[in-house]
Amino acid sequence: MSALRRARWGSPLGARGPSAYTLRMSEDRSDKDRQGAAPAIVQTIAADSIRVRSGEKYRTSQGFNAIRDGVKASQQAGQTLRVLGGKPRWLKAPMASGNHYEFVRRTVREHRLATVCEEAKCPNIGECWNAGTATIMLMGEVCTRTCRFCSVDTGNPRGWLDPQEPSNAAQTVSLMQLQYVVLTSVNRDDLPDGGAEHFAATVRAIKEISPQTAVEALTPDFQGVLRDVETVVDSGLQVFAQNVETVRRLTYPVRDPRAGYEQTLRVLAHAKQHRPEVLTKTSLMLGLGETEAEIIEAMDDMRAHQVDLLTLGQYLRPTPNHLPVARFVTPEEFDRYRHWALERGFRECVSGPLVRSSYRAEQALQGNNAGLDNQALMGVVS
Questions:
Q1: Integer Cα distance of 168 and 206 in angstroms
Q2: For 202-251, what is each residue's pLDDT tens digit?
Q3: DSSP one-letter string for 288-321
Q4: What is the dihedral of CA 137, 158, 52, 37, to 10 degrees?
Q5: End-to-end Cα spacing for the chain
Q6: Is-contact 117 125, C-beta < 8 A?
Q7: Is the torsion defined by CA of 233, 17, 359, 299 positive or negative?
């Protein structure tokens, strides 16, 4: 069994990754590969990464074209952009260590798994691995949408899916002894149901092998088709998440035109109405040029659509072809925004510079900002 690179805006180092421990099951595996001979595949992908530069078109192993990092280089060419200086010191994280971190690290080595968190040098790796949490990315490495904050490759997979992925994901969860797993994916507008049944099959497979593992699904918007939302919500998960990503005014150009602020809110509201016991969750990236009044408006809109959980984190530009960072939000501001969210009735708001959608997801209901101490981060501000 193998896992590959690539995720989203997650790593504060500008790499891809929805935080936590992110795996993607390989799209092109032989039976031998599934039994553990993964290095050749990983090396091939790594070699491709070297040959294909950010913003360039390439051909995938499945035979369709894609754009490396999702955004063509020409889209930013000639534009005068405000570029901030180096990242502030509060965006640094401690070195990874700990007993369970070492267990997961040994397991990754023994089973020849490649992880986004290692390859992208995600600073949250120690926390997440020690907590026994992971994020697994489903349905391949190529997204059908082009969001200007996200560095997932874009293209049209033409209906390709790995039929073994649900069972392989379930085996990975069992192997890693995960207490909490987040399932996420690329958008798959090429599929009739947007991948809803594939998501649901993966949740069911995990629950069959590891019934004690809590499952969160961070899904696409399924183009607003509510029956597809129901397919996922009915699968046995505990948390259903779909990200608003940014405030209403900045939805375009931040998100792909096929996405939408209202569409995401409708999806979240329907998930809650369909299964009231399932928690709903969304996320805002900050530092894209939003105002504080717009942050408040977004929070009010989310609560009006019965969203339970909110995460707030710093946007970081993954490549020079993506949208620039407009400001670095301070730890003190993140604490203030969390206070605003709790005042509005969110069950929890996990808020901080290093927070991503799945960051410390297993702690989201502890009522303490998932144990994050922004005051301590403020101590490193010069």
A1: 9
A2: 999 999 999 999 999 999 999 999 999 999 999 999 999 999 999 999 99
A3: SS--HHHHHHHHHHHHHTT--EEEEEE---SSTT
A4: 50
A5: 46
A6: yes
A7: negative
